[in-house]
UniProtKB/TrEMBL annotation:
It catalyses: [(1->4)-N-acetyl-beta-D-glucosaminyl](n) + UDP-N-acetyl-alpha-D-glucosamine = [(1->4)-N-acetyl-beta-D-glucosaminyl](n+1) + UDP + H(+). It holds the Pfam family Chitin_synth_2. This is chitin synthase. GO terms for cellular component: plasma membrane. The lineage of its organism: Eukaryota, Metazoa, Chordata, Craniata, Vertebrata.
Length: 1308
C-alpha cells in the first residue's frame, strides 16, 4: 500500500502533466479501496480539485459491471480492462472507474481538449463580439480619480487656511493693542467671534430640524438629555473662554498653536483604551508622546509669561489660566469617540441612545451651544468694561472688514468640512485630508509672519533709536491711508510687539514661544496619527467616519481630526469579517432575437470572469438564472412537446460565448476550450439546463412550458423569488433547525442571510458591465434600509424613434429620477436592470401580495401591465427605500418602430399613473412607515402628476399661441383650432382598430412636428418683436434650454444626446398628447403589445443543438447529461404551481366579464382625463376673454435689465401660474441633479480607487502563488526521481477519449 506522501507526490506529477498538455475539464483519481470514502473525497477536494477549477461531488464504490467512462467506446474499453475494487468519483457529472492495488494507481482523465497538433491551424481566425474587460479600470478613469483626489486635497488645504486665518484675524481685532477696531468698539469684534462660534451650530440645527420633521428620529432618554446638556455646556463655556476671553490677550503665534492643545484629553483616552486592550506598546507610545508634548507646551506657555514677560500683568496671567481651562473643557467635545472602548455600562447606554436619536440630540446640543455662547459673550462685554451701544457707531469700512471676515470664516469652514468628508470617502484619506490638516497651522503661521517680516524690514524711514514696534505706537504710524490688508498685518504685528519677548527679541522668550508652538503642533499630530492607518471601505457613511455631525469653526482642523473615529490597532492585524453577499442574476426571456440574447449572455460571462467562483474571500458570490417563457412547442408525430427555435438559439449562443471566454490565448497554438458542461434536468414546469461557466459560476436556464405553469414576466419573477428566497434560502436554515440547531441563533443567521441576499432583475436583451452591478451592490451594502437600487438605462437601436427615446430616457434619468432619489424615493426601479434586497422582497405585504391574481379590471392595469412599478410601490408602502445610481449603466433595446413604441407605452402609461395614484392614496400611511417619503415629497408628486395629466391641454394652449401669433386670429378661435385635432383623434380611437389608430397617430405626429417647429419660431419671433426676451415665456424657454445644456455638460459621456433634444421637442404633441389618448382608449387591451408574433430565429449550425434536448439522450459533443429532479425540489415546484402558478384557465363568460369591466374602467378613466383637460382649457379661454380685466401688467424689460418706459406686458394669472409651476419643478429637479451628480462622482471615484488596489493586489498574489506552486512541484518531482519513492511497477495511464489510442503512457 502506498504511503500518503507517495500518493501526494504522484498526484502532483499527474496534475502537472495533465494541466501542462491538455485543456482538462474533469479529472478522476481513485485511492485505496480500504480507505474511508469521505476521507478520500476530502483529500481530493482540498489537495488538488481547486487547481483545475472542478468540483468533486462524491466518492462512492462502483462495481465493475457499472463502470461508465466517457461515451467514447475506446475510453470505456480502456477502463474495463482493469480488475478489482473500483471507486467512482463524480466530477461535475462525469464518472470514471479507478482501481488500486499494491504499488499501482490507475487514473482516468475524461473530456480533454483536443491536442494542439490536431487543431485546424489554417482556420484560426475568429468572429467575436466586442467584449470589454473591466477588471482593471481604464486609464481615463484612473486619471479622473487622481485628478479628483488632487483637487479635493487642494481645496481642503486652501479652505482650512482661509477658515483659520479669518478667525485669527477676528481674534486679533479684539485685542486691545490693535487699532483697526477702536478700543471703545471692541464689542463688535467680540460679537463677530461669537457669530463664527455659533455658525456651525445654526447649520446643524437647521439640518437636524429638517430631518426630524420630514424624516424619522427617536427621542433620547432623560439620562441622555442630562448628559448631553452637561457636556455641551462645558464645551460651550470652554470655547467662549478660550476664544473670546483669553485669546485676544495673546500674540498671533500663541493663538495659532494654542488651538492644537485641545487634543489633550483625546490622547489620554487613547492611552487608557490601548492599555485596557493590552495591545502593542508602540501603538500606546504615540498618544503618550502627545500627552508629554502638550503638557510641555503648557509649561512653556506659562514660563513665557512668568519668565519672558518681566512686566506681566495679572490680567495676562488670568488669561493664561483661562486658556488652559478652556482647552481642557473643549477636549471633552470628543468623548463619544472613546465611550464604547471601556465597557462602562453607563457610557455604552448613553452612546447607544444617542445613536438611535441622533437628530434630536443634535437639535439639543446646537441649541445649548447657541444659548450658552450668546449668554457668555453678552455678559462678558459689560463685565470687561465695554458698552454694546458702541456697535451702532462702528465705521462702515471697519464694519465691512468684520462682516467680510465672518462670511469668509463661516463659508470656508462649512466647505472645508464637506470637502474633508469627501476626501475620506474617495479614499484619499492621507493625501487629501490628514496632510492638508496638519499643514494648515504651519501655513497660517507663515502666512502671517512673512508679511510682518517684510513690513518690518521695509520700514526704513524711522526716527533714530526707534524700533519698528515702537514706531507702530508713534503718531503718524497708526495705519491711516493704508490698504485694509496692510492694516490687518500691522495689527498682527502689534499683537507680537505687545509682548516683551517679541518686542525686545529676547532669545529665551522666543525659544519658549517657538518651543510651545512646536510641542502643541506635534502633540496634535501624535494624538491623531491613528487616522493614518484607518481602514475605509469602498463606500462609507459619514457617521461611520466621524463621530459627531458638528465641526468647530474656531479650531476646524483640530475638530475634524479628533472627530475621526478611533479604532484600536490590534497586535495581529484582524481582517474585517467579510460578509460576502449572494447575488442571483435573474433574466426573463421570451422571444428575443439572436443578437439580444448574445448581449445578455455575454454580460453574464463577463461577470463570471470578473468575480470567479474559485476566488477566495470574494465580496460577492454570483449565480445566474434565465427564465424562458413559452419555451416549448407541439411537434407532429411526437408524444412530447419539444423546445422551440428560440431555445435552440439560446443554447447556441451559450455555446459560442463559452468558447470565446474559455479561450484565454488567441494564438494558433492555443488549446481548444471544452464546450460547456451541461446538465439537463426534467422539472415539473418543463426543463432546466445547467452550465458550469469557465470561472466556476453556475448558469441555470429554466424552460417554462405554458401548459404546465403560468407564463408572462410577473409569474416568472414569482418563480425565481419563491425558488431562490422562499425555498433555497429558507430550506437551508430549516434543515439546520431540524438537525437540532438553536432557534434564536438560526433566526439571527437567517435574518442576516436575507439582508445579504440580492436579486438582480434583467431583461433578455440587457447588457451591462460588472462595475455597474458592483455599484448597485455598494448602495445596498451601505444602507440597510435600501430595498432596491436601479441604474441608468440606455436605449439602443437605430432610427428616429430610438433617437427620441435616447433624449427621453436621458431627461428622465438626469432630472426626474435624481429628484426622486434626493427628495424621496425612486418610484420605479425598472426590471431590466435593478438590484433588490432579499429581506425587502420577503417582507410583509411584498412578495406575498405580488402573487395576487388579477380579479378586477384595475388589477390588470396596475399588476400585469406594469409589474416593475407595482413591486416598487409595494416596497415603498412597506417602508423600504428605492435608490438610483447614475454610474451603473445598462443598455437595452428600444422599440425602433412607431407601432412598437406606442404599444409599449400603452402598457406603461396607465400602469404608472395607477401606481402613482395608489401611492398618493396611501400617502399619509406611507410617509409614516417610510422615513424617506415626507409629506413635502408627496406634495411634489401631486404637482408632477397634475402637470402630467394636464399635458394635452397645455400642449393645445402652446399650439394655440403659435396660431394666434402666426395667423393673427382671436385667442378663442386659435384655441378651438388647436383642440379640434386631438378631439377628432379621441373619437377615432373609439371606432378604429389599434393598428389603424397608430397609423392615424403617425400621420398626425408628422403634422404636429411642423406645428411645433412653427411654435418654436413664433416664440423666437415674439422675442424679436418685443425686442426683449425678458417675458415669462421667453425666460422660461431660454432657461429650460440652458438647464438642459448645463445638465448634459455635467454628463460628458452622454452629452451627444442633447442633439436629439430638437427631435424630442418636435415630437412633444405625439409623445405627450396623442400617446396619452391612445393609451387611455386602449386601456382595455391587456396584451403585451410587442414580440407577440414569432420572428425568424437565427439559423442553427450545431446539429447536436437541434436534437430534442429534453429527451433522454446525452450529447457527447456538448457533455450533456440528463438528470432527474431531486424529490424535495420536485415537491416544492408542484406545491408552488398548485398554489400560485397553475396556468390560468378562463371560461368564455369570465373572459367576457373581464372585457366588459376593462371597457368600463377605460371609459371612466378617459372621461375623467378628458374632463380635467377640458376644465383647464375652458378656464384659460374664459380668462382670455376678460384679459383686460384681470391681467397682470408687468414692466417691459430690455435684455440688459433696464425698464422700457411707458410699455408693459400683460400676463394672465393662469398662464403665470402654469409657467411658475413648470419652472419650480424644473429648478427643483435641476438642483437635485447637481446634488446627485456630486455624490455619484464621489462613489465612482471611490470605486475606481478600491478596484485598482484590489486588481493590483490580486495580480501580485496570483503571481506569487504561481511561483510558489511551480517551486513545490519541481521539488516534488525531483524527490520522486531521486529517491525512487514510487516502485518501478507503478504506472499512470492518461486517456483522451477524442483520440483513437491512449494518448500518453508513462512508467515510473
Amino acid at each position: 500500500m502506498l504511503a500518503e506522501e507517495q500518493v501526494r507526490s504522484m498526484l502532483t506529477k499527474m496534475i502537472t502533466m495533465v494541466a501542462g498538455q491538455f485543456a482538462v475539464e474533469t479529472v478522476s483519481v481513485a485511492g485505496d479501496p480500504y480507505t474511508d470514502e469521505e476521507l478520500w473525497a476530502e483529500f481530493l477536494r482540498t489537495k488538488w480539485a481547486n487547481k483545475l477549477d472542478i468540483q468533486i461531488c462524491k466518492v462512492s464504490p462502483l462495481p465493475t459491471s457499472e463502470i461508465h467512462g466517457h461515451s467514447d467506446d475506446d475510453s470505456t474499453r480502456k477502463c474495463s480492462q482493469t480488475e478489482g475494487g473500483y471507486y467512482a468519483i463524480e466530477v461535475e457529472g462525469d464518472y470514471c472507474a479507478m482501481k488500486q492495488k499494491t504499488g499501482h494507481i490507475m487514473a482516468g482523465v475524461t473530456s480533454f481538449g483536443q491536442a494542439p497538433d490536431r487543431m485546424r491551424a489554417w482556420d484560426a481566425c475568429r468572429e467575436v463580439p466586442v467584449i470589454q474587460d473591466e477588471q482593471i479600470p481604464r486609464k481615463c478613469f484612473q486619471f479622473v480619480q487622481r485628478f479628483c483626489c488632487a483637487v479635493v486635497g487642494l481645496l481642503v488645504f486652501v479652505l482650512a487656511v482661509c477658515s483659520k486665518s479669518s478667525f485669527l484675524l477676528l481674534v486679533t481685532l479684539g485685542n486691545n493693542a490693535t487699532i483697526t477696531v477702536p478700543t471703545s468698539q471692541k464689542p463688535s469684534a467680540l460679537l463677530s467671534i461669537g457669530c463664527t462660534l455659533v455658525g456651525p451650530s445654526v447649520l446643524l440645527l437647521i439640518k437636524s430640524l429638517w430631518k426630524f420633521i420630514f424624516k424619522s428620529s427617536g427621542i433620547p432618554s432623560k439620562k441622555t438629555v442630562l448628559w448631553v446638556v452637561c457636556i455641551e455646556f462645558l464645551v460651550a463655556i470652554g470655547t467662549v473662554l478660550l476664544t473670546v476671553v483669553a485669546m485676544p490677550h495673546f500674540d498671533i503665534v500663541t493663538n495659532i498653536m494654542l488651538l492644537n492643545s485641545v487634543s489633550f484629553l483625546s490622547a489620554v483616552l487613547q492611552v487608557a483604551a490601548d492599555c485596557l486592550a493590552k495591545e502593542r506598546k508602540r501603538f500606546i507610545m504615540l498618544p503618550i508622546i502627545a500627552i508629554v508634548l502638550i503638557i510641555l507646551g503648557y509649561v512653556l506657555f506659562i514660563l513665557s509669561f512668568l519668565v519672558g514677560e518681566q512686566n506681566s500683568s495679572l490680567e495676562s496671567l488670568i488669561a493664561v489660566g483661562v486658556a488652559i481651562l478652556g482647552t481642557f473643557f473643549i477636549s471633552l467635545n470628543w468623548w463619544e469617540n472613546y465611550s464604547t472602548l471601556f465597557n462602562v455600562g453607563f457610557l455604552n447606554d448613553i452612546s447607544k441612545d444617542i445613536a438611535g436619536s441622533r437628530n434630536m440630540v443634535c437639535i439639543l446640543s446646537s441649541m445649548v451651544r447657541i444659548l450658552i455662547t450668546g449668554i457668555v459673550v453678552g455678559a462678558y462685554v459689560p463685565l470687561y468694561g465695554y458698552d454694546w451701544y458702541t456697535i451702532s457707531s462702528l465705521p462702515s469700512d471697519v464694519g465691512d472688514i468684520i462682516l467680510g471676515l465672518v462670511v469668509i470664516q463661516v463659508i470656508s469652514s462649512a466647505m472645508c468640512h464637506w470637502f474633508a468628508v469627501v476626501a475620506c470617502k474617495i479614499h484619499a484619506l492621507r493625501r487629501s485630508f490628514v496632510v492638508p490638516m496638519y499643514l494648515a497651522s504651519v501655513t497660517v503661521l507663515a502666512f502671517f509672519l512673512v508679511p510682518v517680516s517684510i513690513y518690518s524690514h521695509g520700514a526704513t524711514e524711522l526716527p533714530a533709536n526707534v524700533s519698528y514696534c515702537q514706531s507702530l505706537q508713534l503718531p503718524g504710524y497708526e495705519g491711516f491711508n493704508i490698504s485694509w490688508f496692510e492694516g490687518l498685518m500691522k495689527d498682527v504685528t502689534r499683537t507680537l510687539c505687545n509682548h516683551e519677548i517679541s518686542a525686545e527679541k529676547d532669545v529665551t522668550g522666543l525659544a519658549f514661544l517657538g518651543g510651545l508652538a512646536l510641542c502643541w503642533w506635534l502633540g496634535l499630530i501624535f494624538s491623531t496619527l491613528y487616522i493614518w492607518y484607518l481602514r475605509i471601505e469602498r463606500i462609507e457613511r459619514t457617521q461611520d467616519l466621524f463621530v459627531r455631525r458638528m465641526y468647530e469653526s474656531a479650531f476646524l482642523e483640530q475638530s475634524m481630526l479628533l472627530n475621526t473615529r478611533f479604532k484600536i490597532r490590534k497586535r495581529i492585524k484582524e481582517r474585517r469579517p467579510k460578509e460576502p453577499v449572494t447575488v442571483y442574476l435573474c433574466a426573463t426571456m421570451w422571444h428575443e432575437a439572436y443578437d439580444e440574447m448574445m448581449r445578455m449572455v455575454i454580460s453574464m460571462f463577463r461577470l463570471d470572469k470578473y468575480r470567479p467562483k474559485t476566488t477566495a474571500a470574494s465580496d460577492a458570490v454570483f449565480e445566474f438564472h434565465i427564465y424562458f417563457d413559452d419555451a416549448f412547442k407541439d411537434v407532429e408525430d411526437s408524444k412530447e412537446r419539444h423546445v422551440n427555435e428560440y431555445v435552440e438559439t439560446l443554447v447556441e449562443v451559450v455555446r459560442e460565448v463559452y468558447i470565446i471566454f474559455g479561450e484565454e490565448d488567441s494564438c494558433i497554438f492555443k488549446k481548444r476550450p471544452p464546450v460547456p458542461h451541461q446538465k439537463i434536468i426534467r422539472t415539473p414546469y418543463g426543463g432546466r439546463l445547467e452550465y458550469t461557466l469557465p470561472k466556476g459560476n453556475v448558469l441555470m436556464v429554466h424552460f417554462k412550458d405554458k401548459q404546465l405553469i403560468r407564463h408572462k414576466k410577473r409569474w416568472s419573477q414569482i418563480m425565481y423569488l419563491y425558488y431562490l428566497l422562499g425555498w433555497r434560502l429558507n430550506r437551508k436554515f430549516f434543515k439546520m433547525f431540524e438537525e437540532g440547531g438553536d432557534k434564536n441563533a438560526l433566526n439571527e443567521a437567517l435574518k442576516k442571510e436575507k439582508e445579504n441576499t440580492y436579486i438582480l432583475t434583467l431583461d433578455g436583451d440587457t447588457e451591462f458591465q460588472p462595475s455597474a452591478l458592483m455599484l448597485l451592490i455598494d448602495r445596498l451594502k451601505l444602507y440597510p434600509d435600501v430595498g432596491a437600487a436601479c441604474g441608468r438605462i440606455h436605449p439602443t437601436g437605430a432610427g428616429p424613434m430610438v433617437w427620441y427615446q435616447k433624449f427621453e430616457y436621458a431627461v428622465g434619468h438626469w432630472m426626474q429620477k435624481t429628484a426622486e432619489h434626493v427628495f424621496g424615493c425612486v418610484l420605479c426601479s425598472p426590471g431590466c436592470f435593478s438590484l433588490f434586497r432579499g429581506a425587502a422582497l420577503m417582507d410583509d405585504n411584498v412578495m406575498k401580495r405580488y402573487t395576487t391574481k388579477a380579479t378586477k379590471a384595475s388589477h390588470y392595469v396596475q399588476y400585469d401591465q406594469g409589474e416593475d412599478r407595482w413591486l416598487c410601490t409595494l416596497l415603498l408602502q412597506q417602508g423600504w427605500r428605492v435608490e438610483y445610481n447614475a454610474a451603473a449603466d445598462a443598455y437595452t433595446n428600444a422599440p425602433e418602430e412607431f407601432k412598437d413604441f406606442y404599444n409599449q407605452r400603452r402598457r406603461w402609461s396607465p400602469s404608472g399613473l395607477a401606481n402613482t395614484i395608489d401611492l398618493l392614496g396611501s400617502g399619509k400611511l406611507t410617509s409614516e412607515r417610510n422615513s424617506s417619503i415626507s409629506r413635502l415629497y408627496i406634495l411634489y408628486l401631486i404637482l408632477v402628476t397634475g402637470t402630467s395629466i394636464l399635458g394635452p391641454a397645455t400642449i393645445c394652449l402652446m399650439i394655440a399661441g403659435s396660431f394666434q401669433f402666426i395667423f393673427n386670429i382671436q385667442p378663442n378661435i386659435a384655441l378651438l383650432l388647436a383642440t379640434l385635432p386631438p378631439l377628432v383623434y379621441l373619437g377615432l380611437c373609439f371606432k378604429l382598430k389599434a393598428d389603424n389608430q397608430i397609423k392615424v397617430a403617425g400621420a398626425m405626429s408628422v403634422l404636429y412636428a411642423f406645428l411645433m417647429l412653427a411654435t418654436m419660431l413664433s416664440i423666437i419671433a415674439n422675442i424679436v418683436e418685443e425686442k426683449s426676451f425678458m417675458t415669462p415665456s421667453g425666460l422660461f424657454y431660454i432657461g429650460l434650454i440652458s438647464i438642459y445644456v448645463v445638465t448634459a455638460a455635467l454628463h460628458p459621456q452622454e452629452f451627444s444626446v442633447i442633439i436629439y433634444g430638437f427631435l424630442y421637442f418636435l415630437c412633444i404633441p405625439s409623445g405627450h398628447m396623442l400617446l396619452n389618448i391612445y393609451s387611455l382608449v386602449n386601456m382595455n387591451n391587456v396584451t403585451w403589445g410587442i414580440r407577440e408574433i414569432s420572428g425568424q430565429a437565427k439559423a442553427q449550425t450545431a446539429d447536436a443543438i437541434k436534437k430534442q434536448l429534453m429527451q433522454a439522450r446525452c450529447c457527447s459533443r456538448n457533455s450533456c447529461q440528463l438528470r432527474g429532479h431531486p424529490k424535495d425540489e420536485t415537491k416544492f415546484w408542484r406545491e408552488l404551481q398548485k398554489k400560485y402558478l397553475e396556468p390560468l384557465v378562463e371560461g368564455k363568460e369570465q373572459q367576457k366579464k373581464f372585457a366588459r369591466d376593462l371597457k368600463a374602467l377605460r371609459d371612466k378613466a378617459t372621461f375623467t382625463y378628458f374632463i380635467c383637460n377640458a376644465l383647464w382649457l375652458v378656464a384659460t379661454s374664459f380668462l382670455q376673454a376678460i384679459v383686460n380685466t384681470i391681467s397682470i401688467p408687468v414692466p417691459k424689460l430690455h435684455a440688459n435689465g433696464t425698464v422700457v418706459r411707458g410699455e408693459t406686458i400683460s400676463i394672465e394669472p393662469i398662464e403665470l401660474m402654469l409657467l411658475l409651476g413648470f419652472a419650480v419643478i424644473i429648478v427643483v429637479q435641476f438642483l437635485a441633479m447637481l446634488y446627485h451628480r456630486i455624490y455619484t462622482l464621489i462613489h465612482l471615484v471611490s470605486y475606481i480607487a478600491t478596484e485598482t488596489k484590489a486588481a493590483k493586489k490580486h495580480e501580485k498574489k496570483s503571481s506569487r502563488q504561481s511561483a510558489e506552486s511551480d517551486t513545490q512541484v519541481s521539488t516534488a518531482l525531483e524527490a520522486i526521481y531521486k529517491n525512487g519513492a514510487i516502485g518501478q511497477e507503478t504506472t499512470i495511464y492518461f486517456q483522451n477519449p477524442l483520440c483513437e489510442d491512449s494518448l500518453h503512457y508513462t512508467s515510473l
